[in-house]
Amino acid sequence: MDFPSQVSQKDVLVADTRVDFKREAIPVRVLNLDNKPKTVDKGAVIATCEPVLDIVARPQEFSESLRLPSILENLEGLNEEQRTAVKELLQEFQNLFSTSDSDVGRCNMTQHRINTGNHPPIKQYPRRLPLAKKEEAECLVKEMVDNGIIEDLSGPWASSRRKMGRHVSVLTTGS
């Protein structure tokens, strides 16, 4: 969607979205950036629609050995000397780049702490997962545990555990 300047001048934003024109009504999210109430005039054009030109399907699996070479092939807009320099730089430091979706990296140079002050932990009951999503969730959790992205923790601020079947447990964030 494209947003006319008359709306943005009033400290009002319209959320970018994709819509289905088969629907009779199209909901529009509007955000007031000011602390004062705003009025949008009836009939005012708050957004325009444009058709999607290209739909690019994301490949399901990436070949780790082909990822960097495929990046090197897509160096449009560079002359041959610049391409050679970029290729050499990327190949020299290729161990610093992610080679797959599960290669998220780690940094032990700093620690992050969330200061909650004296606020006690918030307890929320886990939300039930639809059965249609159960298998996908189990696979994602297993993948994250295997890759060291999540781990089992205990303590007052730890997320609650849910059993998803007989053998798989899921960590829920409580949000």
TrEMBL record:
Residue ranges occupied by any Peptidase A9 domain in the UniProt entry: 77-126
Gene Ontology BP annotations: DNA biosynthetic process; proteolysis
Molecular function (Gene Ontology), one example: aspartic-type endopeptidase activity
Protein name, UniProt field: Peptidase A9 domain-containing protein
Organism of derivation: Araneus ventricosus
Taxonomic placement: Eukaryota, Metazoa, Ecdysozoa, Arthropoda, Chelicerata
